[in-house]
């Protein structure tokens, strides 16, 4: 097995790379084991011509200081994202919808983010779905509109605990803040060159510390440290940092097994998957029509990536329901269907692409989706097992964040916090 390292990191997404970098910079011996043949995890990007194409995590915005500090450290700039800047304007004629958003934020303020299960109404909220509450508390069309907005970052309302929805919203600054009703929207900035510039540069700093194509199958742990087993051998270390989404971490074989509450939690924290796509064009023809910087339909949420780099790009996410339909199609059928969805809003020129890229995140074996969530009853029964280390095994990633859960900001924050805790220990 060779020497014992100070830490073994499972996963080379942004959380794993940040944690490894902080420990390596402090002089510790670190190994990062990544199942994929690439780094980045749920951040996926590359260049097509002069255009940075992004199919995974990409945005930042107000209050997200830790990922911005990381970008500055790595020499990655920030730029304005025009896609969702009109949220407040589009809501100006919807006072009742705005009132519903404010009401949701009043309720989310009652959630203690460190311990959502201790909210005054935690039991009541956790034992109903978001859909149940919307149907009861918000009238007709406004309930459907809110459900559509919330599915931008949560699962279908009928699958999600109301307490989880409130926790996620509070963690991300509230629904009004996410939508940009009182200032810049939650997703109002982009990283110059794409968010993958962050993980690419972290990977360059770590060099051979990162071992690709090395899925961890089993972790032996005890008072003397941990051993992570792969097909190619084993890595021993004093501590492990597991940065996989909880549902995938729960598929690892731990010896001894995880405590029952932790195991039950990972069984009840599924991950929501969507198809992400980027359609490339020789010119941004949609800019000929004022106000068409984004479209939102039953099938797609899509936006102009902005800028003057060639080719022009209209990116998007398919709805959960549409993504499930696309999963049953061949790759050619899938791309034809998505471009057809764009053409319904942008006109027939949307079919004339010079490039098309897509990923079905639900089908990615080492991700299985984008944002994780908790089903009904799970926060109150098992939520306390989400964040604490189990012996010498620590957890980091977007799902474990207190602030900005589900975001790169949260992933970076948890990675830095875990690295600091290990250094202090």
Short précis:
The chain has 425 residues and is α/β, with parallel strands linked by helices.
- Characterize the overall form: globular
Rg over alpha carbons: 21 Å
Alpha-beta content class:
alpha/beta
- Average pLDDT figure: 95
The major pleated sheet works out as:
8 strands, mixed
End-to-end span in angstroms? Answer: 24 Å
- Unreliable spans are none
- Portion of residues in beta strands equals 15-25%
Helix content: 25-40%
| Distinct helical segment count | 16
Give me the count of strands: 20
Report on the architecture of this protein:
With 425 residues, this protein is an alpha/beta fold. The chain has helices spanning 14-25, 65-74, 87-90, 95-108, 122-126, 130-137, 140-150, 162-171, 175-179, 196-206, 246-249, 260-267, 320-327, 331-346, 378-382, 408-424, and strands spanning 4-10, 30-33, 45-48, 51-54, 59-60, 78-80, 189-191, 210-211, 218-222, 225-230, 233-242, 253-255, 271-272, 275-281, 294-296, 300-304, 312-318, 355-360, 371-372, 393-395. Strands 1, 2, 8, 9, 10, 11, 12 and 20 form an 8-stranded mixed β-sheet that branches. Strand 3 and strand 4 (51-54) form a beta hairpin. Helix 1 packs parallel to helix 16, helix 4 packs across helix 8 (162-171) and helix 6 (130-137) packs antiparallel against helix 7. The chain is globular. The mean pLDDT is 95.
Features:
alpha/beta
Per-chain topology:
Layout: E1 4-10, H1 14-25, E2 30-33, E3 45-48, E4 51-54, E5 59-60, H2 65-74, E6 78-80, H3 87-90, H4 95-108, H5 122-126, H6 130-137, H7 140-150, H8 162-171, H9 175-179, E7 189-191, H10 196-206, E8 210-211, E9 218-222, E10 225-230, E11 233-242, H11 246-249, E12 253-255, H12 260-267, E13 271-272, E14 275-281, E15 294-296, E16 300-304, E17 312-318, H13 320-327, H14 331-346, E18 355-360, E19 371-372, H15 378-382, E20 393-395, H16 408-424
Parallel strand pairs: 1-2, 1-11, 2-8, 9-12, 11-20
Antiparallel strand pairs: 3-4, 5-7, 6-7, 9-10, 10-11, 13-19, 14-17, 14-18, 15-16, 16-17
């Amino acid at each position: 097995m060779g020497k014992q390292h100070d830490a073994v990191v499972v996963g080379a997404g942004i959380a794993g790379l940040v944690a490894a970098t902080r420990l390596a910079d402090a002089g510790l011996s670190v190994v990062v084991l990544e199942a994929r043949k690439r780094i980045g995890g749920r951040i996926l990007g590359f260049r097509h011509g002069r255009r940075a194409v992004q199919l995974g995590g990409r945005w930042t915005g107000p209050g997200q200081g830790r990922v911005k500090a990381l970008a500055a450290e790595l020499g990655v700039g920030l730029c304005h994202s025009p896609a969702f800047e009109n949220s407040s304007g589009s809501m100006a004629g919807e006072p009742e919808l705005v009132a519903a958003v404010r009401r949701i934020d009043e309720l989310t303020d009652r959630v203690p983010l460190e311990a959502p299960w201790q909210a005054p109404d935690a039991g009541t909220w956790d034992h109903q779905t978001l859909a149940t509450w919307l149907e009861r508390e918000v009238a007709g069309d406004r309930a459907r509109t809110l459900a559509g907005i919330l599915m931008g970052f949560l699962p279908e309302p009928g699958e999600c605990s109301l307490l989880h929805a409130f926790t996620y919203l509070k963690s991300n600054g509230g629904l009004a803040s996410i939508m940009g009703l009182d200032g810049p929207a939650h997703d109002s900035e982009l990283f110059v060159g794409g968010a993958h510039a962050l993980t690419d540069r972290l990977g360059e700093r770590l060099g051979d510390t990162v071992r690709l194509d090395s899925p961890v199958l089993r972790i032996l742990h005890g008072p003397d440290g941990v051993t992570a087993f792969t097909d190619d051998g084993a890595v021993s270390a004093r501590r492990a940092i597991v940065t996989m989404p909880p549902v995938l971490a729960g598929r690892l074989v731990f010896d001894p097994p995880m405590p029952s509450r932790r195991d039950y939690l990972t069984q009840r924290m599924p991950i929501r998957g969507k198809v992400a796509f980027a359609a490339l064009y020789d010119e941004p023809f949609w800019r000929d029509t004022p106000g068409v910087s984004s479209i939102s339909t039953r099938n797609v949420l899509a936006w102009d990536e902005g800028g003057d780099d060639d080719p022009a790009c209209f990116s998007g996410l398919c709805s959960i329901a549409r993504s499930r339909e696309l999963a049953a199609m061949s790759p050619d059928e899938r791309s034809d269907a998505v471009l057809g969805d764009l053409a319904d809003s942008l006109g027939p020129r949307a079919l004339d692409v010079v490039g098309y890229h897509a990923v079905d995140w639900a089908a990615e074996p080492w991700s299985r989706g984008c944002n994780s969530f908790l089903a009904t009853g799970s926060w109150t029964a098992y939520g306390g097992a989400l964040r604490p280390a189990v012996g010498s095994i620590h957890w980091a990633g977007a799902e474990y964040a207190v602030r900005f859960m589900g975001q790169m900001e949260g992933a970076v924050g948890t990675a830095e916090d875990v690295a600091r805790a290990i250094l202090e220990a």
